[in-house]
Amino acid sequence: MRTTGSRHAAAEGDATAVTKEQQRARATTREPCPKCAHPELQYYTMQLRSADEGQTVFYECSKCGHTFSTNT
Fold first, then answer.
1. Is the entire prediction scored with pTM above 0.85?
2. CA 44 – CA 7 distance, rounded (Å)
3. Are residues 37 and 7 in contact, defined by beta-carbon separation less than 8 angstroms?
4. Which residues, including other chains, have CB under 8 Å from residue 34's CB and lie 6 or more apart?
5. 38: domain CATH number?
6. What are the residues whose beta carbons fall under 8 Å from the beta carbon of 45, sequence distance 6 or more?
7. pLDDT of residue 19
8. Range of the domain at 29
9. 8 A C-beta contact, residue 35 and residue 62
């Protein structure tokens, strides 16, 4: 069943926009990259596990592109 203009369709569009915005809005930290030792990493957090557990922090080096994550 197609529901043009429904709240459900709008909610899906909003979720996509939030995800793209989260990718653009990254914080930086003065931690060295484990691969190239560049002194600054970009990071963002997401709640991937249940609400009573910590967040996952995703890091990316702006110099070499190395990515990794940690669970807090």
1. no
2. 28
3. no
4. 66, 68
5. 2.20.25.10
6. 55, 56, 57, 58, 72
7. 58
8. 7-71
9. no
